[in-house]
Amino acid sequence: AREYRTDISGTWAQHPQSASQSFSHSFFVILLLITAQSSMRMMNRMVALLVAAVIAVTATHAEEELVAVVRLISFSSRNVTGNLKIVQTPLDGPVTITGKIFGLTEGSHGFHVHEKGDLSEGCKSAGAHFNPENNTHGAPEDTVRHVGDLGNIVANPEGEAIINITDNIISLRGSNSIVGRSIVVHSGEDDLGKGNHSLSLTTGNSGDRWACGVVGIE
């Protein structure tokens, strides 16, 4: 049975032991609340740090990737069109060109970067192959080649070519940057400098310029 006593004022009060237990319970509840608040603050800090880390990683990734685009326009009797995306990751890494080109004849077509981004007179004003080292024309895998030598693309019977080219020589920055220059699609196959034609070592004897477009940073 509980023990009671009368205090100085004559009122009844619980035994000190019961009051102590009540105090302990209250203290425990307060401690739980403080712990919960601390945990919530810690969780908020962790979420904030996680968000900051994601933003930092995203920003770093963006800084380590360059993206350019090309819209190919036809300046010939054939309606050759297409869109290309050019990505360089990391900044000193290889360049990948992807996209689709339509309106071609079935087979191989020379595909090059030309030195100028001037289309005022159609593809003719795009100039020669981009060739800052003044090399002879070659295949993409050759040691001696123009920077702009990207070989051939191949069109299916419907005249569509799916582009997926990776090259270690061209760049989207620096001395080999193709930004502001033109990509040209030719009427014929590039002989990669291995033919006996007088144009083999300059253009690969790849024929007329059917379509072209200026490389611009996205």
Write the layout of secondary structure elements.
Blueprint: E1 4-6, E2 12-14, H1 16-63, E3 66-74, E4 81-88, E5 95-102, E6 107-114, E7 120-123, E8 149-155, E9 161-167, E10 182-186, E11 209-214, E12 216-217
Antiparallel strand pairs: 1-2, 3-4, 3-11, 3-12, 4-5, 5-9, 6-8, 6-10, 10-11
Description:
The chain has 2 domains: 24-60; 66-217, Superoxide dismutase, copper/zinc binding domain (Immunoglobulin-like, Sandwich). It has one helix at 16-63, and strands at residues 4-6, 12-14, 66-74, 81-88, 95-102, 107-114, 120-123, 149-155, 161-167, 182-186, 209-214, 216-217. Strand 4 and strand 5 form a beta hairpin. The strands form 2 sheets. Strands 3, 4, 5, 6, 8, 9, 10, 11 and 12 form a 9-stranded antiparallel beta sheet that branches. Residues 1-16 and 53-61 have low confidence and may be disordered. The protein is elongated, with a radius of gyration of 36 Å. The protein has 218 residues and is α+β, with helices and mostly antiparallel strands.
